[in-house]
């Protein structure tokens, strides 16, 4: 399975996927830390995370897959939502909580 196939499988298999630096318990950058914090604050449970620092192939290929250059990257229902800034904006507007609630009731 190619790295792009693996990324596609992760995104299609899990309703909420955060490709991040580190883990939710030990984020390795401030952006990843903030993204996981707002996801949890907005009620996300069962967030599937992928530590891009532990998987160099995913780290190298994810920007090509998503056409998004930075980490973290949040996907909901297979769709790229964006990075930390967009995730924070959606959180502040209440839109992120709505998206999460919709995913989790499905």
UniProtKB/TrEMBL annotation:
Mind telling me what this protein is named? Glutaredoxin
Which SUPFAM superfamilies does the record cross-reference, listed alphabetically?
Thioredoxin-like
The answer to whether UniProt assigns keyword Iron-sulfur to this entry is: yes
Which NCBIfam families does this UniProt record tie to the protein? Grx4 family monothiol glutaredoxin
Every copy of the Glutaredoxin domain together lies at 16-81
Give the family per the record. Answer: Belongs to the glutaredoxin family. Monothiol subfamily.
- Could you confirm whether the keyword Magnesium appears in this record? no
What keywords were assigned to this record? 2Fe-2S, Iron, Iron-sulfur, Metal-binding, Redox-active center
- Give the organism, scientific name: Luteimonas composti
């Amino acid at each position: 399975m190619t790295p792009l196939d693996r990324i596609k499988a992760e995104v299609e298999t899990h309703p909420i996927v955060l490709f991040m630096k580190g883990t939710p318990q030990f984020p390795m950058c401030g952006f990843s830390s903030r993204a996981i914090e707002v996801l949890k604050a907005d009620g996300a449970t069962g967030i599937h995370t992928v530590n891009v620092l532990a998987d160099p192939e995913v780290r190298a290929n994810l920007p090509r897959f998503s056409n998004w250059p930075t980490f973290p990257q949040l996907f909901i229902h297979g769709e790229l939502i964006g990075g930390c800034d967009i995730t924070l904006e959606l959180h502040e507007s209440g839109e992120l909580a709505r998206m999460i609630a919709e995913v989790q009731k499905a």
